[in-house]
Design a protein that fits this description.
Number of helices: 8
Protein name: ParA-like protein
InterPro entries: CobQ/CobB/MinD/ParA_Nub-bd_dom (IPR002586), DNA_Partitioning_ATPase (IPR050678), P-loop_NTPase (IPR027417)
Pfam family, one: CbiA
CATH topology: Rossmann fold
Structural class: alpha/beta
Helix content: 25-40%
Radius of gyration: 16 Å
CATH class: Alpha Beta
Strand content: 5-15%
Shape: globular
Largest sheet: 6 strands, parallel
Distance between the termini: 17 Å
Number of domains: 1
Order of helices and strands: EHEHEHEHHEHEHH
CATH architecture: 3-Layer(aba) Sandwich
Keywords: Plasmid
Domain CobQ/CobB/MinD/ParA nucleotide binding: 5-179
Length: 212
């Protein structure tokens, strides 16, 4: 059965879909990967459409699974990983995915607005884990400023570590870099262009979470 990796948030604008796309491409080096877009905005599915329309520019293709697919479906047996993007709200589909996922990754921007959602998010994770015993949850600081004098990232990390969350807080950040926006807009990923810092940063985080 495939490992289900859910990108979940109760707040929009945290870079969830972009990070899900990067993860899908990264995991193709380790097995067969499918994606599932449970967000009504269909940001991840539109990325797949751009990717497929690019033809030979990208060798690794994805065929999205329907968002209403039964998670016990035998169709999942043909994949090693399924990367799931959910809406940036506490939704019914997001809760359903939580009850079936193996890993849930919650990106957070280092901002007060994002930190204000952490305790509510943790309550949702605690409830899900009481039913889904295999679920492992992680918080990741995403879209961090690259300015060397920025203090928000370090301050946000400290607050997360002191919050007593049931989710594991990943210390390694993912920075807000142009390569992520430009590659995503073209249906690509940072793992398919020349060596760049984003690929290194995301790989470190995913290796720590998924153990690949």
């Amino acid at each position: 059965m495939a490992k289900l990796i859910l990108f979940n948030s109760i707040k929009g604008g945290v870079g969830k879909s972009t990070l899900a796309a990067q993860t899908a491409v990264f995991l193709t080096d380790f097995g067969r990967v499918a994606i599932m877009d449970c967000d009504p905005q269909q940001t991840l599915n539109r990325w797949v459409m751009r990717r497929n329309e690019a033809g030979e520019n990208f060798q690794r293709k994805f065929s999205p699974l329907p968002s209403d697919l039964d998670f016990s479906s035998k169709n999942l047996n043909q994949f090693d990983y399924v990367v799931i993007d959910s809406a940036g709200i506490d939704s019914k589909t997001g809760r359903k995915a939580l009850l079936n996922a193996d890993f849930v990754i919650s990106p957070l921007k280092p901002s007060q607005a994002d930190l204000d959602t952490v305790l509510d998010l943790d309550d949702i994770m605690l409830e899900a884990k009481s039913i889904n015993k295999k679920l492992k949850s992680f918080c990741v600081l995403n879209m961090c400023a690259t300015h060397p004098k920025d203090k928000e990232r370090a301050e946000s990390l400290e607050l997360l570590q002191q919050a007593g969350l049931k989710s594991t807080v990943i210390e390694e950040p993912i920075f807000d870099r142009k390569i992520l926006r430009t590659s995503f807009s073209e249906g690509g990923s940072c793992f398919e262009v020349k060596a760049n810092k984003s690929a290194d940063e995301i790989a470190v985080v995913l290796q720590k979470i998924l153990g690949v």
